[in-house]
Amino acid sequence: MAQNAVYLPDEFLAQMRDAMPASLSFDDFIAACQRPLRRSIRVNTLKISVEDFLTLVAPYHWRLTPVPWCSEGFWIERDDEDAVPLGSTAEHLSGLFYIQEASSMLPVSALFAGDEMPSRVMDVAAAPGSKTTQIAARMGNQGAILANEYSASRVKVLHANISRCGISNVALTHFDGRVFGPALPEMFDAILLDAPCSGEGVVRKDPDALKNWSHASNLEIAATQRELIDSAFHALRPGGTLVYSTCTLNRDENEAICHWLQEQYPEAVEFLPLGDLFTGAYQALTAEGFLHVFPQIYDCEGFFVARLRKSAAIPPLPAPQYKVGNFPFSPMKPREAALLTAAAAEAGLGWQSELRLWQRDKEVWLFPAAIEPLIGKVRFSRIGLKLAESHNKGYRWQHEAVIALAGVNNPLAFELSHAEAEEWYRGRDVYPLTPPESLDVIVTHQHQPLGLARRIGSRLKNSYPRELVRDGRLFAGHTK
After folding, report:
1. What is the model's pTM?
2. Distance between CA atoms of residues 214 and 20, nearest Å
């Protein structure tokens, strides 16, 4: 990237000069903004341990440097980027890792900095899903996450990432985040508000990020952020934790938002310092205990993270005036549930007791039990996993359920070679040298489930969802 490729307005630079602590060099800040961003990944521990992942990818000679604030996070350098894009590697397609900027791993690390594991969490602005999937991994797919996204076009991407990572405890909503305080008062143990912001921290990824920058625009955005944090704080139970974060650098959208909330509820807002979150956190620590990450400190995107506790109840907001409408699902009757559970077990699919069977017509779904108290209070885009469709001859198991529930030691597993797995991701039927004996199999690669296949003669009929089919360069060219 050319030295002058990143656009930095004079007024922005003046504001940064004022905001930056004396311990940091302004010249280092300018230089960091002009450098290309280091790529980073986060291992998805719902599917593989960090240790096993490192063993699996060792033959590729990726240079992986640990991210200090996330034990699953690594900066990555590769010599084979031109041979196969990172997003087209076998390990990415099967959900073993998520491509996530290192600093964006900070908010979830802060959310789980305490000793208690929350059972119901909300991610207010969730797409494309990096933080939602990180939260789910930290929760071990237990409890429930409400993942909200205001942009309708991004909800589909959010769901695709949740499905690829084998996540079963998420409910999706599509609302303006300001509805949750009135609609779901005191319903969450922990809330992440990674707020829409002016994006001043992302210039290393997007050189034109500040082309339309203005101080007036920052103040407009801050007004929305105040409404969002107020709503989120109302949705948080007393004793719960709220993490407020942005990928911007000015104080108006960061420290000032947290101080404003404390001024509104002085008896209820407690700042929880993040100086002990990881070794070296002191370099970004503010007087309040927030982390204000300028890009030169850890050589990553600029970021801001604050951790707050709701130490007392606050007066509720007026109840919402909308109607939620009838909920089209009903819990599955015990006898039918027992039959279905037994059939699923034969297909190698099992689930924890925290997931409950619900149905709508011929569809069978698994809902996280911790989401049930919210039913009837908001309208959901999607809850949990679609497990099956029932028909005369039994059940048709769904792709997302296989990815989440089949595990790595499945009795129906049929392991594909590198080349066969590539054919699978391209949506083509597979012709193994030795076809399986059973009619229905769960095809795997690197022992990870890729989907369901039916043997017809010597071929395995592909059932990979059409919307996920890949073309272009895939991993078969990525030799060990």
Report:
1. 0.96
2. 18
